[in-house]
From TrEMBL:
Function according to Swiss-Prot or TrEMBL: Plays a role in vesicle-mediated protein trafficking to lysosomal compartments including the endocytic membrane transport and autophagic pathways. Believed to act as a core component of the putative HOPS and CORVET endosomal tethering complexes.
Pfam families recorded: Vps16_C (PF04840), Vps16_N (PF04841)
Keywords: Endosome, Lysosome, Membrane, Protein transport, Transport
Signal peptide positions (record): none
GO CC annotations on file: CORVET complex; HOPS complex; late endosome membrane; lysosomal membrane
Record-given protein name: Vacuolar protein sorting-associated protein 16 homolog
Organism: Drosophila willistoni (Fruit fly)
Lineage summary: Eukaryota, Metazoa, Ecdysozoa, Arthropoda, Hexapoda
Matching InterPro entries: VPS16 (IPR016534), Vps16_C (IPR006925), Vps16_C_sf (IPR038132), Vps16_N (IPR006926), WD40_repeat_dom_sf (IPR036322)
Domain (Vps16 N-terminal): residue spans on this chain: 6-421
Length: 832
């Protein structure tokens, strides 16, 4: 089917089609002429670094000092580096878009894309002393590595800046110089391939000496001058001084072809063209001055005249070509694109594309084309969606997506998820390819990097608005982007109020979650803008995030206030301990005195760790009650209560605590009395309670002194009677007890008399007092005194049937027939 649509840049290297895709034309500064420059470009549409080629003669304009200039893909300068170090040997870009520069003394400098130095490291003493001849920047499994070839013919490599350097094996017959070399990564290992005359030397880590591979070419040649390894490190290209090209596997066990280019001039670069459909590679691009040659593994070729100065950039799905006036990409044509747009294509997707066009023209032929692909319309729709993802031209993308949308209308229950996913990604890719963003990514590159990496690169380039819109479009979190925007504002806008206002305005959106004002405040503090940091911390609702930074800023009063408001005791404790280490005690007291919870927590901490510090707090607050308690606790612990009671009492008096002050006075009198009593009776009274003091006096028979203590300290009569009863019973003074019971009416009744008699198993004495007990308790006490006959008579008189039945259970009654008959008789009478 003859369709010519966007195929003008196709070319064939049998049996496959390739295409050149025009990217945004770079607009270089007027003083940049790439013909006299060394240029290295980062993959994935990344930045370029250019420096004047010292091997080419060129009139010097301005300073003669070397300068590395950094550009984006549209030729816009993003930064520069005044090279004031040693001789620059090589440059390269890392996988995180960092420029790696290697100088002659084996020192490596790392810069970001704006020319700011990030770190530096060295390859060690041996490489430093022998000097670097050449260097390579390569991608390893653990990051971006650097390999160096010294003037002594030794190869050292580092897999990343954190790894130690590794010395590769010796080069066999090292008296002959190598003409080219390359690094190959295989799994976790990296090794070196060197070209020397007509042989390839492999230096693998762990071996003592390198292995030699020769006789790779069938045709005669003098030496191998170029080595190129494919992007996936699976394929190898070798180029000789006679223009022979050898293509094969990287292990050199499989040879694809040997091709005579017929050219005697030296190639500038050789790069493999990776396929878009898979991870294989079928062809290489060779650049010569003003000439470009493409050769595939079938030994077919295609060539183009080109600008005299060009630089090739290997990508995972093609090769970019950067010149003074153009920026292009060579790709193997995706199969789905070929199926749709190839001349005389008979594929279902091609028919569906034509059917959609005719439908828009309102032509009846639309149905004819549709009938040709109706059986495979699902495949046709999928190929149109896939083809749209590979296109750079927005009009072509729209046409293919319209075709897919048209076709899926004829599929019952079609799932539109893939269609929507590709459409979202294409909108993002078209935005990234815009000249203001200058990140010409392909769909395959976008999928490989993943959206998070893309967003981080946009943020690093300070395209915050675009990054936020992309995140929203792809349903990804945007809070961290806003945080980076806030960091940028903090570092570059010097109006604190304006910065705080803008940040508050941006972050008040309820759809933005996970924002931490503390992180931004931390940045402000690092930049010496503490006032701005405090303004931002006031916006942070989580106290546990506020407090650490406030302490770091030594804003202790704000830290205490924030921690206290949170009510988190652990947080308050942390703040107090930190302040205690960094502030005088007097200032600390002034800081926390207005925060009751913090003050109480501090008192608790000091009570457990440093009680002496408590006195300072109480004294500063004039808290006389607390001072009295402090002295009291110290007196108890030091066993010096008597000598301190006067001081404690005075403090209570000043603190308007009359009850406590009176107790101190009474305790002082009691202690003095106890000393006198101890001397008088020869018994230790010191420290006894009033109760025990009276009890001991009664036991000693000093009733007069006991009554005096009772009256002086207002001991209740009930307690005093109990003490006398217990004392007389303890010493079996039963006559005195009876006399005491008759002396006056007992304030505690007569049950205590019975109780002490029962306790000492004196039934006779107990029987004297039971009649004077309450009627309801008499039966109980008769039973307790084991006076069962009296208990039976009393229960009968009181008509207490329950007590009679209880008595019936007693063994003493059951064993006494007379009592048992009497009891049963009384029970029977009560039931009648």
């Amino acid at each position: 089917m003859p369709i010519m649509y966007n195929t003008g840049e196709w070319f064939k290297v049998r049996p496959d089609y390739y295409r050149k895709v025009e990217l945004d034309t770079p607009d270089w500064p007027l003083d940049i002429d790439l013909e006299y420059m060394q240029v290295v470009a980062a993959p994935y549409g990344g930045p370029l670094a250019a420096i004047r080629d010292p091997l080419k003669l060129v009139p010097v304009k301005g300073s003669s000092r070397p300068m590395i200039r950094i550009f984006d893909t549209t030729g816009r300068e993003t930064g520069h580096i005044l090279w004031n170090h040693g001789k620059l040997i090589a440059m390269g870009w890392s996988d995180t878009e960092e420029l790696i520069c290697v100088q002659e003394n084996a020192k490596v400098f790392v810069y970001d894309m704006f020319g700011t130095e990030k770190e530096s490291y060295t390859f060690g003493d041996e490489a430093s002393v022998t000097k670097i001849l050449e260097a390579k920047v390569f991608q390893s499994s653990v990051g971006t590595g650097v390999a160096v070839l010294t003037t002594s013919g030794r190869v050292f490599l580092k897999h990343n800046s954190n790894k130690t350097e590794r010395k590769l094996p010796d080069i066999p017959n090292s008296h002959v110089d190598c003409t080219c070399w390359e690094i190959v990564t295989e799994g976790r290992n990296s090794y070196c391939l060197l070209g020397r005359e007509r042989e390839i030397i492999k230096l693998f880590p762990g071996e003592t000496v390198g292995t030699i591979k020769d006789n790779l070419f069938e045709k005669p040649h003098d030496r191998i001058i170029k080595i190129s390894v494919s992007y996936n490190h699976q394929h190898l290209a070798l180029y000789t001084n006679t223009g022979l090209l050898w293509l094969g596997s990287v292990d050199m066990r499989q040879k694809y072809c040997e091709f005579d280019t017929g050219r005697k001039d030296l190639p500038l670069q050789i790069e493999w063209i990776m396929n878009t459909d898979n991870t294989e590679s079928d062809a290489v691009v060779i650049s010569y001055p003003s000439f470009l040659l493409i050769v595939n593994r079938n030994a077919d070729r295609s060539d183009f005249p080109h600008d005299p100065s060009m630089f090739l950039v290997a990508e995972m799905d093609g090769v970019r070509i950067i010149t003074q006036s153009s920026h292009e990409m060579i790709q193997r044509l995706p199969k789905c694109v070929e199926n749709i747009f190839a001349v005389n294509s008979q594929e279902p997707a091609s028919y569906l594309f034509e059917a959609q066009k005719k439908f828009e023209e309102k032509s009846y032929k639309s149905d004819e084309y549709l009938s040709m692909c109706r059986e495979k319309i699902g495949l046709a729709v999928n190929q149109c969606i896939e083809a749209a993802s590979y296109e750079f031209c927005t009009e072509t993308q729209k046409s293919l997506l319209r075709t897919a949308n048209f076709g899926k209308g004829f599929i019952h229950g079609h799932n539109p998820d893939e269609y929507m996913r590709i459409m979202r990604i294409l909108r993002v890719l078209n935005t990234l390819r815009h000249e203001k963003i200058a990140m010409p990514l392909t769909f395959k590159q976008f999928s490989h990097l993943n959206p998070e990496v893309i967003l981080s690169r946009l943020v690093f380039r300070k395209h915050y608005g675009v990054a936020i819109q992309v995140a929203k479009h792809l349903n990804l979190p945007e809070s961290w982007i806003l945080e980076h925007w806030a960091y940028h504002k903090v570092m570059n806008d010097h109006n604190d109020n304006e910065v705080a206002r803008k940040i508050t305005e941006k972050f008040k959106n309820p759809s933005v979650e996970g924002i931490s004002f503390c992180n931004i405040a931390e940045k402000a503090h690092q930049n010496g803008r503490d006032e701005l940091a405090i303004k931002l911390l006031e916006l942070e609702p989580r106290a546990f995030l506020q407090v650490p930074l406030l302490l770091k800023m030594r804003k202790f009063d704000r830290a205490v206030a924030s921690a206290t408001q949170s009510g988190d005791t652990e947080l308050i404790t942390t703040v107090l301990l930190e302040i205690k280490m960094n502030m005088m005690l007097s200032n600390l007291h002034m800081t926390i005195r207005d925060h009751k919870l913090a003050l109480n927590m501090y008192k608790k901490i000091m009570r457990e760790s440093n009680r002496a510090a408590l006195y300072g707090i109480y004294n500063a607050e004039d808290d006389q009650k607390a001072i009295a308690e402090y002295h009291f606790e110290n007196a108890i612990e030091s066993e010096g209560l008597e000598s301190n009671l006067s001081l404690i009492g005075n403090s209570y008096t000043q603190g308007r605590c009359p009850v406590e002050a009176e107790l101190c006075a009474e305790t002082s009198r009691m202690l003095k009395l106890q000393k006198t009593l101890s001397s008088k009776h020869g018994v230790d009274f010191n420290g006894l309670s009033i109760h025990n003091t009276i009890s001991n006096l009664l036991k000693l028979g000093d009733l007069k002194e006991a009554e005096k203590v009772k009256n002086d300290y207002k001991v209740p009569d009930r307690r005093f009677w109990w003490l006398r009863i217990l004392t007389m019973a303890e010493f079996s003074h039963w006559d005195q007890l009876e006399k005491f019971a008759k002396s006056k009416k007992s304030p505690i009744g007569y049950e205590p008399f019975v109780e002490v008699c029962v306790k000492h198993k004196n039934k006779v004495e107990a029987q004297k007092y039971i009649p004077r007990c309450r009627e309801t308790r008499k039966v109980h006490w008769y039973m307790q005194a084991e006076l069962f006959e009296q208990a039976i008579d009393c229960a009968y008189e009181q008509r207490d049937l329950h007590s009679l039945h209880e008595l019936k259970k007693k063994d003493s009654i059951l064993n006494d027939p007379n009592l048992l008959d009497k009891l049963l008789k009384y029970i029977a009478q009560q039931h009648s």
